[in-house]
UniProtKB/TrEMBL annotation:
Lineage: Bacteria, Bacillati, Actinomycetota, Actinomycetes, Streptosporangiales
Residue ranges of every copy of the Alpha-L-arabinofuranosidase C-terminal domain listed in the record: 307-500
EC number(s) per entry: 3.2.1.55
Catalytically driven reaction(s): Hydrolysis of terminal non-reducing alpha-L-arabinofuranoside residues in alpha-L-arabinosides
Broad EC category: hydrolase
Alphabetized UniProt keyword annotations: Carbohydrate metabolism, Glycosidase, Hydrolase
This protein's name: non-reducing end alpha-L-arabinofuranosidase
Protein family membership: Belongs to the glycosyl hydrolase 51 family.
Pfam families in the record: Alpha-L-AF_C (PF06964), ASD1_dom (PF22848)
């Protein structure tokens, strides 16, 4: 069998937009075992913890240089009342999580616990406020409670609850999915609410808020245009209003129907390719929403935040259908790698992305076994780790003069080789994916404007796209050294086995 050959031209001395580290953000909702049983096990747990926060989860995520963590939702955000989650735990009122499993929660994981988690992770907090069932005053008070110093009613309450100094929290979401679970609002109705809530979320001292409005679902371009109209006038003299600094976008990779999304581990090659087509569709969504934003904001002052993305499968058999627990295969890892290539290409407008979700829910980084307490790193985790060198690096354009292999999938074209590159601190990182389940590929990297020394490479692959890690076999899929990278007259030749993800790193000479 002859390898497919792809030529890629990269100008090492022509940096593009910086890849915001927050494109590698995460999401922790009060959903299933993400918070309770995932991040938080309680102070009485036999699992090593600090203040109830599970330390092996923290250690694993710190290895990813996790930049931010979004909390408490998701749909849960718009039924969460933060005052119920502060103060002595034995006095906190319980609540019913009506969105996810209709279970009762004791509110033991609240604001102070979340902020402690972010400090342990070295991550910036991203808090989603309650617009759907909350009040402007409630959210304004939350911002004051967390970020204000000196003296005020909320400052005194925070100090009484054990925190003397304020925290720094830049990122605030003005509700979540206002078009759906966050209130079933029209775009015009939500735009008015966003103006109001955003106005009363104040900057306290030198803590400058970055307010993220609840943006569109998938291809609802009208929603994006309606919000952009609220920010200012059409044209080059655009001066964004101060009540929101970014819009969100949500898109999940679901190759099946909403009622039958497909199985996480049992699938054939056709299912695999349909999944990759759905994953690649995020590029069209980002490009079209960005184009609308460009009409109103040519200076790109307003950011786009894809703060929910990832695969969504049917839940694992025997688990609570409201807990959204699913396994994570090599296929999921390739979905992630393709997303990151797309994110890097749109780094001029895309300022944040948050995979859903970090632990035990949807396309998780980590799965924890409730019986044994074992922790499993998923294939998706390893893509984040292998790609972490792209954070805050200058993107490098990748030109493909001869194109890439294309497979027709239900009349839709699928490019089966994907790649992106960046440069930071004298080092270059190149990420390459082969989405084909059977064909190998060789990529000829034509490196111009410099050369690479001290080249190293790693690969993430397995015998089948269906392979995954379990408590019994946690290392089935893990990165290893990739030997099949060779020097050429113009740069490097990289061999890509079927269904593989490869990174190549080197120092610029």
């Amino acid at each position: 069998m002859t390898d497919q050959v792809v030529t890629a031209i990269i100008n090492l001395d022509v940096p593009g937009p910086v890849i915001n580290r927050h494109l590698y953000g995460h999401f922790a909702e009060h959903l299933g075992r993400c918070v309770y049983g995932g991040f938080y096990v309680g102070e009485d747990s036999d699992i090593p913890n600090e203040g109830g926060i599970r330390l092996d989860v923290v250690e694993a995520l710190r290895a990813l240089n996790i930049p931010n963590l979004r909390w408490p939702g998701g749909c849960f955000a718009d039924e969460y009342h933060w005052m119920d989650g502060v103060g002595p735990k034995d006095r906190r009122p319980a609540m019913v999580n009506t969105h996810w499993g209709n279970v009762e929660e004791n509110n033991h994981f609240g604001t102070h616990e979340f902020m402690a988690l972010c400090e342990l992770l070295g991550a910036e907090p991203y808090i989603s406020g309650n617009v759907g069932s909350g009040t402007v005053r409630e959210m304004s008070d939350w911002v004051e409670y967390i970020t204000r110093e000196g003296d005020s009613p909320m400052v005194r309450l925070r100090k009484a609850n054990g925190r003397e100094e304020p925290w720094r929290v830049r990122f605030w979401g003005l509700g979540n999915e206002a078009w759906g679970c966050g209130g079933h609002m029209s775009a015009e109705q939500y735009a008015a609410e966003a103006r109001r809530f955003g106005t009363y979320c104040r900057d306290h001292g030198d803590n400058k808020l970055y307010r993220i409005a609840a943006g569109a679902n998938s291809d609802d371009y009208t929603w994006t245009e309606t919000l952009m109209k609220q920010l200012g006038d059409l044209g080059c003299a655009y001066r964004p209003a101060a009540f929101m600094q970014a819009l969100s976008l949500h898109y999940y990779t679901i190759p099946g129907t909403w009622e039958d999304k497909g199985d996480a581990t049992v699938f054939d090659a056709d299912d695999h390719y349909r999944t990759m087509v759905k994953a690649a569709h995020v590029e069209e969504l980002i490009a079209r929403h960005s184009s609308i934003m460009d009409c109103y904001d040519p200076g790109k002052n307003v950011g786009l935040a894809l703060d929910e993305w990832g695969t969504w499968w049917n839940v694992e058999p025997g688990t609570n259908p409201g807990f959204l627990y699913q396994q994570n295969t090599l296929r999921d890892a390739l979905v992630a790698s393709v997303h990151f290539d797309i994110f890097h290409r749109h780094a001029d407008r895309l300022v944040m992305a948050n995979i859903a979700q970090t632990v035990n829910v949807l396309q998780a980084m980590i799965l924890t076994d409730p019986d044994s307490g074992a922790l499993v790193l998923t294939p998706t985790y390893h893509v984040f780790e292998m790609n972490k060198g792209h954070q805050d690096a200058a993107s490098l354009r990748v030109d493909l003069p001869g194109g890439v292999p294309v497979r027709e999938v239900d009349s839709a074209p699928l490019a089966t080789v994907s790649m992106s590159a960046s440069r930071k601190d004298g080092r270059v990182l190149i990420s390459l994916s082969n989405l084909d389940t059977a064909e190998t590929a060789d990529v000829e990297l034509d490196l111009r404007g410099g050369a690479l020394t001290e080249v190293s490479s790693r690969i993430l692959t397995s015998g089948r796209p269906q392979d995954h890690n379990t408590p019994e076999a946690p290392g089935t899929i893990a990165p290893r050294v990739h030997e099949r990278v060779t020097a050429t007259a113009s740069g490097l030749r990289v061999h890509l086995p079927a269904h593989s993800f490869v990174t190549v790193e080197g120092r610029t000479a």
